Amino acid sequence: MKSLLEVIAKALVDHPDSVVIEEVAQERGKTYRLSVHPDDMGKVIGKQGRIARALRTVVGAKALKENERVTIEIG
């Protein structure tokens, strides 16, 4: 899951070396915290949050196949 999120995030940004994904296990599943370079924040979020929503949808679909609950936080 983390590798999928990393590949997509690095493809979106201008500074792929600054992409950091932290995995946090919780009671109800996993939370992935995605951090990017401040200049790339808009590219990851997109207009009206469309890119972020698409990112959550793709990762969520993979999590559903693996019978997991996943949350993505962008910051």
TrEMBL record:
Q: Name one GO molecular function term.
A: RNA binding
List GO terms (cellular component aspect).
Answer: cytoplasm
InterPro entries reported in the protein's UniProt record: KH_dom-like_a/b (IPR015946), KH_sf_prok-type (IPR009019), KhpA (IPR020627)
Which UniProt keyword terms apply here? Cell shape, Cell wall biogenesis/degradation, Chaperone, Cytoplasm, RNA-binding
Q: Which Pfam families match?
A: KH_KhpA-B (PF13083)
Top-level taxonomic group: Bacteria
Q: Name where it mostly resides.
A: cytoplasm
Q: Which GO terms describe its biological process?
A: cell wall organization; peptidoglycan biosynthetic process; regulation of cell shape
Compartment annotation: Cytoplasm
User: PANTHER family under this entry?
Assistant: RNA-BINDING PROTEIN KHPA, UPF0109 PROTEIN SCO5592
State the oligomer form and interacting partners: Forms a complex with KhpB.
Family as reported in the entry's similarity comment: Belongs to the KhpA RNA-binding protein family.
What is the annotated role of this protein in its UniProt record? A probable RNA chaperone. Forms a complex with KhpB which binds to cellular RNA and controls its expression. Plays a role in peptidoglycan (PG) homeostasis and cell length regulation.
Name of the featured protein: RNA-binding protein KhpA
Q: What is the source species?
A: Aneurinibacillus soli
